[in-house]
Each structure stands twice: as structure tokens, then as C-alpha cells.
Backbone:
């Protein structure tokens, strides 16, 4: 039986979303094949081994009995050292966390140092996929169509000078976001100067880099991707939020959005979206799984918005729903993600350290 560490929580504004995603993954894992070891990362960064996985995912790590645990970074014998002195060997890690210190290459680097096979993309793809500036730069280098955007850093992301810089480049309305965050946390649609200043302040409170994007007048389309060397795309779906745009409330509140699968965009546009999703996945050298988001403009142009290397897997999330509509149910989906991680590790083989 494979010893699988399910890693959830994290030092991120998306901590709660991780718990919801982990509930889905935990429910879909085949317990005849996997011995699931719950590893929760508290908001303050402590690693904890929860006594009851379901209670930890339902009530939160602070409300559940747990003991401290540390990852043993030993490629010969990776595992977990618990506070009681016991050691649990690990064969595979499934990090299902979103945002900083999780989806940004940091935990992937730690797992690489430990020599562990794990689910999802590697260090570089994770880091670039999390940093919206770097991600868009890579997409631009590959010729993928995008909206116009501007990135502001540190002190330049706040105040009158920041507002002037945005107004010089982009027309209202604009979307203002932290560069390194997801789930629409810290994001605002600014319609004028009065809204832009506070929007910049909010985004800058989450990250030292702020990205401001031109508004795409069109439909919001999502497409999921699975694979390593030969990724494949799911059917595309259309997000229709109740609010003006697809914000945090719409993403995680029942009844605040509808998700039409397949999107009513015709076979030709379905194929175009799928091809662009695979191209975006390949551009960042992703592996395992990801979700790509698009805008379908009124003139028919398809624009790449972003890629999520650890997409949400809640009951409302697009990623599992898109694959379910493509013929891959939740159990098969999670199984494929694990197998892709194992195959990626096996294909890499031992790392040469001599010269």
C-alpha cells in the first residue's frame, strides 16, 4: 500500500479553500491502494499530524487534536517525524494547497529536496504559474494572446503616482490584483480614479507586486488539463457569475454563479480553447494537472487569462466538474493525478551529481 501524505492548509489567504479542496481529494482516494497520512499546515506555518482527517478538514486545524510533525528531508528514506518520536515513511505527497507557500514552488522545492514523488507541477512551473507577471511574460514569449497589463512594485504600487501610471496605460475599468495570489483574493474591478486608489492599496497589502489588467469584454471560459509530456484538455465550460465579475464570493458561495458545461461556443471554439490550454500548460512546463482560464471576446478572439497549477477542487470548483463532463469522474481524476506524479518521478530517474 502506498504511503500518501495529503498536505493541506498552509500559510496563505486561501487556507480555507485548501481545506475544502482536500475534502474532495480525501474522499476520492482509493483507501485500498493508499494509506492516507494527513499533514496540515497551520496559518502560522506549523506542520501538524491530525488525529482525525475528516475533523481537521471540517472544523479546521486549530479545533482538532494534532501533534507536531516534521518532514524528514532524506532522499534515501523520506518520511515524517512526529512529536512522539515515531517515524512514518512516505512514498508520495499530494499537496492540495493554494496561494503562497504552497502553489508557488516553495513546497515543491522542499519535496524535491526530500526526493519525494508528488502531485502536480515542479518548482519552476509552480513558481512561474503563481507569479502573474512571470506567467504573462512567458505567455507573451510563446505568442499566446492576452489582455494588456501593467505591473507595479513596492512603493510604486501605491499613491497618486501609481494611479497616474495606470491611467497613462489602460482605460477604465481595470482589474487590480496581487501578483502572487489566487481565488480572486485582494482583487478589485476599478471603474474610475476613486476606486483605483483603494484597489491598489488592497492588492498591495497582499503582495509587493500588483498587476493591473485591461478589462476583456467577453465571456469567461475555463478548461482543465491533465498529463505530463502529452497533456490533454477537458471540454471547456463557461462561468456566469451573479456579480459583475467572477469574484471570491461568486467562486465559493452556493448560488452566486452558474457553470455551463460544455460552454455553448461551438465545436471550433471548443477546439481552440483546448489547444490554447495545452499550449499554456506546455509553455510553463507544467505537469500533472492545471486549469486554464480564458476570455472569449465579442469579436471571437480567445484570450488567455491565467493558469492555476493547483486548481480548486471544492464541490463548486470547475476543475473536477470539467473532467466529469469529459468522462473522468472524481475517483479516476485523483487516481490519474497520483499516477502522473509517480510517472514524472520515475521518468526523471536518479539525478547525476558528478562531473
Residues:
Amino acid at each position: 500500500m502506498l504511503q500518501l501524505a495529503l498536505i493541506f492548509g498552509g500559510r496563505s489567504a486561501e487556507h480555507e479553500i485548501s481545506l475544502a479542496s482536500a475534502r474532495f481529494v480525501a474522499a476520492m482516494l482509493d483507501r485500498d491502494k493508499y494509506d492516507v497520512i494527513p499533514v496540515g499546515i497551520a496559518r502560522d506555518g506549523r506542520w501538524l499530524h491530525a488525529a482525525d482527517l475528516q475533523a481537521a478538514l471540517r472544523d479546521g486545524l486549530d479545533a482538532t487534536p494534532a501533534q507536531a510533525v516534521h518532514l524528514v528531508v532524506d532522499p534515501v528514506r523520506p518520511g515524517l517525524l512526529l512529536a512522539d518520536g515515531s517515524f512514518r515513511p512516505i512514498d508520495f505527497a499530494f499537496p492540495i494547497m493554494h496561494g503562497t507557500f504552497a502553489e508557488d514552488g516553495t513546497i515543491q522545492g522542499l519535496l524535491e529536496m526530500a526526493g519525494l514523488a508528488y502531485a502536480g507541477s515542479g518548482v519552476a512551473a509552480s513558481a512561474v504559474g503563481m507569479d502573474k507577471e512571470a506567467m504573462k511574460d512567458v505567455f507573451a514569449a510563446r505568442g499566446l494572446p492576452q489582455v494588456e497589463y501593467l505591473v507595479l512594485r513596492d512603493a510604486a504600487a501605491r499613491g497618486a503616482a501609481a494611479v497616474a501610471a495606470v491611467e497613462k496605460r489602460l482605460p477604465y475599468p481595470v482589474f487590480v490584483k496581487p501578483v502572487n495570489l489566487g481565488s480572486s483574493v485582494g482583487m478589485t474591478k476599478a471603474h474610475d480614479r476613486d476606486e483605483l486608489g483603494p484597489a491598489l492599496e488592497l492588492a498591495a497589502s497582499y503582495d509587493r507586486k500588483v498587476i493591473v489588467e485591461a478589462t476583456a469584454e467577453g465571456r469567461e471560459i475555463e478548461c482543465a488539463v491533465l498529463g505530463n509530456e502529452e497533456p490533454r484538455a477537458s471540454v471547456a465550460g463557461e462561468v456566469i457569475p451573479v456579480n459583475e465579475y467572477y469574484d471570491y464570493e461568486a467562486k465559493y458561495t452556493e448560488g452566486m454563479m452558474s457553470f455551463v458545461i460544455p460552454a455553448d461556443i461551438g465545436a471550433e471554439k471548443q477546439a481552440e480553447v483546448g489547444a490554447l490550454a495545452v499550449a499554456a500548460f506546455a509553455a510553463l512546463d507544467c505537469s500533472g494537472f492545471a486549469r486554464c482560464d480564458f476570455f472569449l471576446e465579442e469579436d471571437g478572439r480567445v484570450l488567455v487569462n491565467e493558469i492555476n497549477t493547483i486548481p480548486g477542487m471544492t464541490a463548486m470548483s470547475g476543475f473536477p466538474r470539467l473532467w466529469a463532463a469529459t468522462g473522468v469522474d472524481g475517483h479516476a481524476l485523483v487516481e490519474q493525478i497520483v499516477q502522473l506524479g509517480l510517472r514524472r518521478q520515475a521518468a526523471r530517474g536518479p539525478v547525476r551529481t558528478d562531473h
Notes: The longest strand covers residues 218-227. Residues 76 and 115 are 8 Å apart (CA to CA). Residues 330-348 form the longest helix (19 residues).
